[in-house]
Amino acid sequence: MAALHLLRWFILLPALAPLVYYCLAIYSGLVYFRRLRKLAPPDRSFAPPVSILKPVRGLDHAAYENFASFCGLDYSDYEILFAVADPDDPIIPVIEKLQRNHPKQAIRLIVGVEQLGITLKTNSLVRLVQEANRFFGEHACCKNSRKSGLRSRLDHGYNEDAPRANWRVRIAGESSFG
Fold it and tell me: DSSP labels for 101-112?
């Protein structure tokens, strides 16, 4: 009888581990969001020109809507740079439509990239960085996703750049939501 009782506890304790994990995760989330609410709003006085770098390849669902979400950002001065390695890529007409529908937004399409690395994405990113540095400014935000399936928030630029206002050159990673 005592062995059966001991066996029951031996099985029950590991079974409680996920419950403990989920309780810790919920507690951590609550603490994080409570602290986030207490933070000061982002400093909107720091808004240098920024280039959003977007290497693209192929067409996917809602590509136009995802790209158009970058055209409505609440940021003062930015451009969107798209790089497509293949001149026959089906995404090119979508980006050209985006340029026509948003004439006030600085949108550039770079077609054909030099073979520098192993992957087309690496080659496209190198070309995008060269174009961003040459024409627009020293701040770049890389929207590097496998396809176009990321949409950007309206306050994206301020949330990304404000805490790092003393950086001279920076490249940001993913912070959008899909």
Answer: H-TTSEEEEEE-
